Each structure stands twice: as structure tokens, then as C-alpha cells.
């Protein structure tokens, strides 16, 4: 479909298709490095790349693992990323690739560059290379090894591949221009020696290609038409074009840059996410406080809402920071449509209905989802002893408080109007421990004579039937924005100690006795909640996905 918000990359792609460029086809790719789990920033890139391909009946988006770095990558990340892309609702339709599968081809291209006199083996130390590189205001100096003959270079490069040299002794560099105002063109490194096993190619290689070399050529090999990346690669584009033109000129993928997605107060760098996980500052990659797709999923965020959020943002050429509340509003909107309503009491206060028979239980009809009448109704048990929310009672209510108070009436959702006749207090602490109420049998919800109006309706559960539950509430993980943290500060000192609040005396209606992890509910008046994988029969665990309204808008 073509419901995606207009964006400048889409305009380029549409114009190229209309002009018949690349045979009128669009081939994009999503190229994650399998060195961590995906986060919401990656979702933006996924929606963009897969979305553009979907708009072309013949379009395709490849999933390519950019796995050219042997020391940080792992198969478990590959599997997790595939799972997350599918969960978001996208399909690479069999076009699954690994840059490591191109190692032999990339090596061949490098020999070609050497033969053309466009690459050389440099034997300066890393420190020397840095000082030869010059600065933004001063041109660099040519390495003394720059004029090695093609034959010598080929011989040395083959020895590098054969493992004859230790790490760091030689590199292969492109021969471009040490005086270029663009630092990326000052003879960039194409290959490094690294005696390290790779998760897919094992010990086959001890030289590994640099990103700026492997990435454009992987795009060219796959026939990518539009290679979309984030803005920090804008200065690399001349190198991207140089590499393709000199090594594999049959294909000319076009690199287009867009602004990365930044979300206020969110940890969006894989390195920092890994630090949180490794130092056990969070429960794991799927901790619901993290902006990882695994964390969002466990928290109850839906792929539909994440896609709608990404489409809504469009694509920009300038970095901006988005508020988490914006994403939350999309989550809320989607969950409002799809979640079953239930009653749950997070902080219970006991009430006894004095004039209700002790041995009676009524089964009352409760609406499952007013947004979706096809979901029907369910039965909720009502009896003499109930629990309501502590917050729904005040002994000395201020003027604007319309809920329960001594002598006051409220309606119990799906049930009756009750009146509080007495608050029982703990003689020592003075705290209210239970309420005695009466009910008006004439006011049963749905009954003909239920017309009498009161100012508030509150939720409740029946004491004898309710199920005990754990509920986890989440608050922002950080107390400040990371851009405000000086680089010499330990950023983890800005973690919010209140980011996780566990409520372990919650009571939920009996329909929640057995929940499937991932099941989504609206706890009436409280918010959206999702069953956690830690749930057990008779002991459900819920994560608060998002409150019912934006706390700031209330
Ligand atoms: P990180 O900075 O978290 O380590 P990365 O960019 O190194 O992320 P990759 O695995 O290389 O991670 O990312 C795969 C793709 O996702 C890249 O094309 C990258 O441009 C894109 N991407 C990553 N982060 C964002 C973001 N915040 N917004 C938009 N796109 C992103
Ligand atoms: Mg990257
Ligand atoms: Mg990275």
C-alpha cells in the first residue's frame, strides 16, 4: 500500500521509478551488524527500507547482515534480528544475505584495485598513519610505502591473507588523495590484519575488510538501487561512489542519507545497551524499560503502533529528538482498539457490603471491548466482600473528589450504586483498613430502574474470586538526556532508581487466572497491561505498557 507519509527519499525513489532508472525497480536493504539486538532506531530504518520496496510491485528489500567484524558478532544476534524484522511485519522474501559470504569476492576486487594501481599495502604503524593523515586544516602526507609497485603490493597482500604477518603490521589502503579536504578520501584503509575467528567463516580469514569498502560493494553485488543510511555517512558518500566505480562499476547503487531517530531519555546505542545488560543494571535485552524491540514487545508495544509511529515521523535531513510520549500516543491508540477490558485492583482496599447476602454470588455482564462489539461480554462475579482501589477512597475528600468517602455514593462498574457508611481503622496506625458500605438493589447496571446517577464509577474485584497478581510499573530509565551528560561522567549514574516499581498484592478478576504471555488488556481506569512471560497459572504477572492517558495531559 502507499499510505506512508511523504518523505524526500520516497520522492527520489518514485522519480527514479518513473524515469525508468534501474529498469524502474527499487531494491533496498536493511543492513544490521549482528552485534546486538535491534532498537526503535533500527525500526525506523526497517520501516523506511521495507516500506519503499513494498510500494513497488516488483520491489524488494534485502535483509543483509553486515558481518565483517569478527570480534563482536554472533549467531544469536542474527536469529534475534530476523525474529524482530518479522515481528515488525516485514518479509525479505528469501533475500537473506551475509556480507561475510562476499569475503572472497571482496578480496578479488581488492586485487583488482591493486593491479589498477589504486590500492597499496602500507606498513606504517597505526600512530604513524595517524600523524601522516593531517588535520581538517592541514593536508596529509604520503606514506613512504605509497609508491610500492603493483607486483610488490599483490605479493604483500597475498602474504597478509596467508597469515604471514601479525595484527597491525600492514594494511591495504586505497590510493586516492592525501590532500583531499574530505578526510575519508585520504587513502582510507580497506583491509586490516586480524587473527580472529569469525562466527560464520571461522578461521578462513585473518584479514577483514573495512566498513567503507565492504558496504558499497555488498550493495553493488546485490544490485541495490537505493542504499539508505544515516546522516553520519554523508561525508563517506564520495568514498562509497569511488569504491563502486573502481571495483564493481557494473552497478551504481545510490547512497541517500537521512536523520537518525533519537528519542528523548532513551538509551539507543548498542554499546550502552550492552553495558546495561552486562552490568546487570537491567534484566536483559528484553527488559521492558529498554527501547529494544524485544523490550518493547515484552512491555506490550505492538508492531502496528511502532510502524504507524515511524510513518508519522516521515524522513528528515536534520537530526531531531522525538519525545517518548509521541510513541506512547500511538501505542495507546492501537491498544484502545484491540485490548480486552478487565478489572484489576493494584492497591486493594477491602469493602464489605452490609446489606448484601453473605452466601450469594452474582454473575454480572461486563463488556469486553466497547471499541469492538464483536468481542461480546463476559461474566464477572460479585459478592458481599470486594476490593476497590485505595486511591478511590478519601476520608476527608477535597471539593473536586467525587469518588468514595464517608456518606458518599459511587457506582461499581457493571454492578450497583454503593454508599460508604463507615471506615474501619487500624487502632495503632490510624490507617483505614476496610470500608463498610450498603448497596441499592434497585440500581443494578443495565436494569430498567438503574437510572439514578452518581458522579463516579469505580472498578472492583470480588474478594472470594479475585486472583493475586504481580504488576510491574515502568518509569523512564534515565533521569536526564544522555546528550547532557559530559563524556567523562559515568552515564549510568543517571539511571532512575524508580524506573521499576513492583506491586505484588494486586488482585485481578478471575478471567485473568491463566494468561498467555503477550496477551494485552486494558485494566479499566488504569492503563494498558501485557501478560509477562514470568506468569504462571494462578499467579499472573503484568507489565504496564502505558497509562491510559498521557500523564502530562491530565
Ligand atoms: P548503534 O549506533 O546502536 O550501534 P548501528 O547504526 O551501528 O547502531 P547497525 O546494525 O549498523 O547499527 O544498524 C543497521 C541499520 O539501522 C543501519 O542502516 C543504520 O543506519 C540504521 N539505524 C541504526 N540506528 C538508527 C537510528 N537511531 N535511526 C535510524 N536508523 C538507524
Ligand atoms: Mg552500523
Ligand atoms: Mg554501531
TrEMBL record:
<feature type="short sequence motif" description="'KMSKS' region">
    <location>
        <begin position="267"/>
        <end position="271"/>
    </location>
</feature>
<dbReference type="InterPro" id="IPR049437">
    <property type="entry name" value="tRNA-synt_1c_C2"/>
</dbReference>
<feature type="binding site">
    <location>
        <begin position="260"/>
        <end position="261"/>
    </location>
    <ligand>
        <name>ATP</name>
    </ligand>
</feature>
<feature type="binding site">
    <location>
        <position position="230"/>
    </location>
    <ligand>
        <name>ATP</name>
    </ligand>
</feature>
<keyword id="KW-0436">Ligase</keyword>
<dbReference type="Pfam" id="PF00749">
    <property type="entry name" value="tRNA-synt_1c"/>
</dbReference>
<dbReference type="InterPro" id="IPR020059">
    <property type="entry name" value="Glu/Gln-tRNA-synth_Ib_codon-bd"/>
</dbReference>
<keyword id="KW-0067">ATP-binding</keyword>
<dbReference type="GO" id="GO:0006425">
    <property type="term" value="P:glutaminyl-tRNA aminoacylation"/>
</dbReference>
<keyword id="KW-0547">Nucleotide-binding</keyword>
<dbReference type="InterPro" id="IPR011035">
    <property type="entry name" value="Ribosomal_bL25/Gln-tRNA_synth"/>
</dbReference>
<dbReference type="Pfam" id="PF03950">
    <property type="entry name" value="tRNA-synt_1c_C"/>
</dbReference>
<dbReference type="InterPro" id="IPR020061">
    <property type="entry name" value="Glu_tRNA_lig_a-bdl"/>
</dbReference>
<dbReference type="Pfam" id="PF20974">
    <property type="entry name" value="tRNA-synt_1c_C2"/>
</dbReference>
<dbReference type="GO" id="GO:0006424">
    <property type="term" value="P:glutamyl-tRNA aminoacylation"/>
</dbReference>
<feature type="binding site">
    <location>
        <begin position="33"/>
        <end position="35"/>
    </location>
    <ligand>
        <name>ATP</name>
    </ligand>
</feature>
<dbReference type="GO" id="GO:0004819">
    <property type="term" value="F:glutamine-tRNA ligase activity"/>
</dbReference>
<protein>
    <recommendedName>
        <fullName>Glutamine--tRNA ligase</fullName>
        <ecNumber>6.1.1.18</ecNumber>
    </recommendedName>
</protein>
<feature type="binding site">
    <location>
        <position position="66"/>
    </location>
    <ligand>
        <name>L-glutamine</name>
    </ligand>
</feature>
<feature type="binding site">
    <location>
        <position position="211"/>
    </location>
    <ligand>
        <name>L-glutamine</name>
    </ligand>
</feature>
<feature type="domain" description="Glutamyl/glutaminyl-tRNA synthetase class Ib catalytic">
    <location>
        <begin position="26"/>
        <end position="336"/>
    </location>
</feature>
<comment type="similarity">
    <text>Belongs to the class-I aminoacyl-tRNA synthetase family.</text>
</comment>
<dbReference type="InterPro" id="IPR014729">
    <property type="entry name" value="Rossmann-like_a/b/a_fold"/>
</dbReference>
<dbReference type="InterPro" id="IPR020056">
    <property type="entry name" value="Rbsml_bL25/Gln-tRNA_synth_N"/>
</dbReference>
<keyword id="KW-0648">Protein biosynthesis</keyword>
<comment type="subunit">
    <text>Monomer.</text>
</comment>
<feature type="domain" description="Glutamyl/glutaminyl-tRNA synthetase class Ib anti-codon binding">
    <location>
        <begin position="340"/>
        <end position="440"/>
    </location>
</feature>
<dbReference type="InterPro" id="IPR050132">
    <property type="entry name" value="Gln/Glu-tRNA_Ligase"/>
</dbReference>
<dbReference type="InterPro" id="IPR001412">
    <property type="entry name" value="aa-tRNA-synth_I_CS"/>
</dbReference>
<dbReference type="InterPro" id="IPR000924">
    <property type="entry name" value="Glu/Gln-tRNA-synth"/>
</dbReference>
<dbReference type="GO" id="GO:0005829">
    <property type="term" value="C:cytosol"/>
</dbReference>
<dbReference type="InterPro" id="IPR020058">
    <property type="entry name" value="Glu/Gln-tRNA-synth_Ib_cat-dom"/>
</dbReference>
<dbReference type="InterPro" id="IPR022861">
    <property type="entry name" value="Gln_tRNA_ligase_bac"/>
</dbReference>
<keyword id="KW-0963">Cytoplasm</keyword>
<keyword id="KW-0030">Aminoacyl-tRNA synthetase</keyword>
<dbReference type="InterPro" id="IPR004514">
    <property type="entry name" value="Gln-tRNA-synth"/>
</dbReference>
<feature type="binding site">
    <location>
        <begin position="39"/>
        <end position="45"/>
    </location>
    <ligand>
        <name>ATP</name>
    </ligand>
</feature>
<dbReference type="GO" id="GO:0005524">
    <property type="term" value="F:ATP binding"/>
</dbReference>
<feature type="domain" description="tRNA synthetases class I (E and Q) anti-codon binding">
    <location>
        <begin position="457"/>
        <end position="532"/>
    </location>
</feature>
<feature type="binding site">
    <location>
        <begin position="268"/>
        <end position="270"/>
    </location>
    <ligand>
        <name>ATP</name>
    </ligand>
</feature>
